Amino acid sequence: MKAVVTVMPKQEVLDPQGKAIQRAAGALGHAGVQDVRQGKRFEITLDAADREKAEALLDELAEKLLSNPVIEDFQVESIEA
Amino acid sequence: MKAVVTVMPKQEVLDPQGKAIQRAAGALGHAGVQDVRQGKRFEITLDAADREKAEALLDELAEKLLSNPVIEDFQVESIEA
User: Could you tell me which CATH number the domain at B2-80 has?
Assistant: First the structure.
């Protein structure tokens, strides 16, 4: 199975990387770029008996390995057979 | 408008962060995790006259600011009014 998990900084957390990109866009002449938030995207290939087991595994991975739950939110975006 | 741009390492590029996560998953008892690739995800809020202008702006941003075209591929995943 192939899955995609995304991890983004929580709304209340400052994102200096995103801010730097937004400023750089302004310097390139793109003042229309109002906000940039940078997060992570994981493409995961896994073996699981069924979709439910894959979801449980991905939730555990996302919580323990892929994100820092104090400052980031994760989402299992897709699971494909 | 709100847009999502994703940036992933090219297939032929090694991804040591992804590899480290895959090994850590194995150490947690999840041998079923066969491959992990780590990339970036950007949520961008922008002002553009229409969808076509937004696409052109996002392509330029992705190429110049969000990715390294030598080792990464980018994709404009979605644009919402």
Answer: 3.30.1280.10
